Amino acid sequence: MILNLKLRLVINLKKVFCDFLSLLASSLLGLCLLISGFLIFINLYHYDYISYDSKINYSDYYNVSTFQKNIDSAFDKVQSVDINSVSVNNRTVANSVRNIIIDSINDLKKSKIYTSVGEQNVDFKTVYDYNVELLSNYSYNTLFYIPYSVELQVRDYSFAKSFDEVSSSFESTKSYIDLVSNYLRNRLLSNSDYIYTTDITRMTIFNELSDSLALVTNNYVRLSNEILKLADWYVSSFGGVR
Amino acid sequence: MKAILAKVCCFFKYLLFIFAFALTLLGVIMTYKRLDKNLVESIYIFIPFLLVFIALICDLFIKSGKGVRKNLLMQLTSCLVFIVIILIGVRAKFDTNMLLYYKYGISYNPLYFSDNLSFILSMLYFLFFAHIFLFVKELVESKGKKKEVVNS
């Protein structure tokens, strides 16, 4: 009788132990299901969000067309100056400054944003490329190099004073563009993170792609405005049609 | 129906495990190569893989593994975990929309991979311990049944 009771107790204990193990295993599997379910859904949503692209007609896009118009206008203004009509004393400096400006304008004409015409698909990579090109190439080659090299050419002439204004304008634009471009680069690079898509305000009130594109194209417009200012200074200093 | 589904999942589980391991290995090699780190240091990443591998082998060859093989929840969860690991590995290698893919110049996104590594490892450990609990349960139950048969 006692033996039978003991046996039943052992069997019951074993049953409780087995149920406990089963419960533990199911809890762990539930946790696994929870994590994997979360990862699958967030990955699908994240993939969908960052692979988003939008069709943009560059000819109608205000910032891009303004940049292209400014560059063309600056080129025409510089070309309108007839070097032969410049006084002999200033002819050499006029020629070398003109070459510096024309070289940088030609460099800007090779930029991805200048060569973009018609309707195209724009995605995060396109915006990132525009931004990297501006930051690594034009920020130095145009905004730093031009005032520095023009200043070297004109420092012994009377128009050096008038160039100071243009030079300081270049400097402030460079620092603004560097700041915004660095912010934008870091923002775009963080798109591998799920946080990029879980920011509620960004999901609801504005489109990340169009916002980034507007920022980067606005920087290009600021750059072209500086080139236009430089062309105006060149024309007013060496003569020609303004 | 349940048994058939468990069998199908059980078959795919082994296949998915191989792919999941291969993609994780690729991720570790790419990441460590970029940092010039010794691969031996990555051993902690492969310990849970090894443990799960041992558990999967035990599933096949140990008698008490039969009960685990029939457990549909276990089979479905295992498949889902390996699918998630494959998804993460594939995205780190092929998702060119993530801009960090270009940043390091290795055609791989090591940051995305390492961000998800902790999830991968914890899921594998959970899976291994769930296996162990079910093994022990099956073992205890089978011994209990044997004793009952002897006593009767």
Overview of this protein structure:
The complex is a heterodimer of chains A (242) and B (152). With 242 residues, chain A is mainly alpha-helical. Chain A contains 10 helices and 2 strands; from the N terminus they run αβαααβαααααα. A two-stranded antiparallel sheet of chain A has the order 1-2. The longest helix of chain A is centred in the first third of the chain and has 49 residues. Chain A is rod-shaped, with a radius of gyration of 32 Å. Chain A starts with a helix and ends with a helix. The mean pLDDT of chain A is 85. The longest helix of chain B has 42 residues. Chain B is mainly alpha-helical and 152 residues long. Chain B is built from 6 helices and no strands. Chain B is elongated. The interface between A and B is large, with 34 and 41 residues.
Structural class of chain A: mainly alpha
How big is the Rg of chain B? Answer: 19 Å
Rg of Cα set of chain A: 32 Å
Overall outline of chain A: rod-shaped
Give the helix proportion of chain B (percent range): over 70%
Taken in chain order, the helices and strands of chain B follow as: HHHHHH
Number of domains of chain B: 1
Q: Provide the β-strand percentage band of chain A.
A: under 5%
- Give the N-to-C terminal Cα separation of chain B: 34 Å
Protein chain pair with the most extensive contact, residues per chain: A-B, 34 and 41 residues
Give the total of beta strands of chain B: 0
Mean pLDDT of chain A: 85
By DSSP, the count of extended strands of chain A is 2
Outline of the structure:
With 242 residues, chain A is mainly alpha-helical.
